[in-house]
Amino acid sequence: MLKIKQVFLLLVLLCVSASTFGQEKKRITIKYSGFALSSPELGEGVREFRRDNQQQVHFIHEGVNLYCDKALYYEKEDFIEAFSNVNMQQGDTINMTAKYAEYSGKTQLAFASGDVVLTEPKSVLTTDTLWFDRTKQQAYYKSMGKVVRDTSGTITSTIGRYYLETQKYQFVDNVVLVNPEYVLKTNHLDFYSETGHSYMYGPSTIKGENNNIYCERGFYNTNNDTGYFIKNSKIDYDNRTIEGDSLYFNRNTSFASASNNITVTDTINKSIIKGHYAEVFKDKDSVFITKRVLAISVQDKDSIYMRSDTLMVTGPEEHRITRAYYDVRIYKSDLSGKADSVHVDHKSGLTQMINLRRFSTSDVFATARKPILWNIGNQMTGDTIHLISNVETEKLDSLRVFNNAFLISKDTLSGGFNQIKGQTLIGLFRDNELYNVDIIKNAEVIYYSYNSENELVGINKSMSALINIQITDNDIDEIRMIKQVDGLLYPEEDFPKNARLFRGFDWREEEKPNSVEDLFKDEPPLVLPVIKGLDPYIPQEEFFDEALLERVEATKKDKDDTTSKAARNIPKPSEEDSKKEVTQEKVISKISNKKDN
């Protein structure tokens, strides 16, 4: 029985010993050296290795090959100092060269300085000093670095981190990506070398030859030159600026789209368009915008506002065309209007208000959909209305109403309506007020006539081939009948009330927009889609974190030992960093307390 217990105890000890042995890290192995030296000057346990004419000194440690012309190996600390033409290789994916390097077999932390070049399959990183933590598989620099990727360009930054497992670079502070087509600047950039995907955080710009982009959070695919931007984003296209909650951009096709709370500003034609979805085709000089559209033609004294379901702006800056579709409403301080659609030629100053043919004449809403204009106290309707503006003075010049022209103004004294109708109406404006009207073909008029004492003389009802009307301060001064067919002035009491309105009379004052807000009157609440956007920025974690410092501290023989080679090139944390991150002193104190206990 005693022998069995002894055998069992021996097996347990062997298992524990084997387990402990398996957990011990392998030491650095010298694979090749032309010359090996040891001397009292080097110190106890320190050997010097030099290359020969055949090849460099070669070390191996857990998948890493280190080559150099000269090296000092500290056996007790399992630590290497490598000099001249240093080359460190990890598998077939990572290659680092430098003038000088250090490597600890215990911490697996490497430090390199002097023309450092880190090469991975998709990019090349160069810097003056670099730390490489093999345990975390991360490389880090903090005194300027440059990454070159063939398809993306060159990226420089003050601080940078490379995560080998995800092939991700994280650049911080003064980040600049230079590409033949554009220059990207930001303070925080996450870049994936395998895919070419870039994530920008904080104020960022992308400047190209013909366009500039600004955002405070965004994504850019450097492989196919497409981007997605949110948070205070805008794109400048020569003379247009597009802003919105969410922007998409394709550099190859010069296409941009925007969603939610968007604004398109045309600096050449002094116009602003607002809506909630837009597409911009730069090469075609066109803009498409929808979802509660408001177009503003900016003028020095009195801007024009136009609401529609959909708006298109096409053509070069010297000859822009604007097309507005469905339920178009116009507001200006002295002019309002409504139509199914509106066509504006900015070069000629012609605005066409159109009644779309998709509505049949039997439609109960057909009358209400006829284009209509209100100028001061005058209401004008017809199948089609043309407004002509002086493009230099930005004032109304004239108007034409084609087919079923109808001009109505309310007589404020009697409560009746002055009415003029005919086939075509031609009006002239002075200082944006209507002063002359000609009614051509089948002209008819009902007019309340007053004397100089503002006493009603009678009601004039006439028919003529052509009628000319002179208007002053919104009051009719004179009516001239040309080729009069019939006409009489009736005393008010002799004129039947049921004859005081022409056939087709439609007073639509309740539809008149009296403010910009009225343009959207009676519209249901607009529900915008939720924009998922991009994940918020996660600050770069400390490279020299608690775990790394614990590994370094464990290389010391006792807590009072300050000669650990593995710790000598770890930078001291700044005063600002010490407030945010775990400092080296705290970690050392923590580990020392563990040893004492």
UniProtKB/TrEMBL annotation:
One of its GO terms (cellular component) is outer membrane-bounded periplasmic space. Residues 1-22 form the signal peptide. Residues 54-186 form the Organic solvent tolerance-like N-terminal domain. The lineage of its organism: Bacteria, Pseudomonadati, Bacteroidota, Flavobacteriia, Flavobacteriales. It comes from the Bacteria. Residues 554-597 are annotated as: Disordered. Residues 554-563, 573-597 have a biased composition (Basic and acidic residues). Coiled coil: none annotated. GO terms for biological process: lipopolysaccharide transport. This is Organic solvent tolerance-like N-terminal domain-containing protein. Keywords: Signal. One of its GO terms (molecular function) is glycolipid transfer activity. InterPro entries: LPS_export_LptA, OstA-like_N.
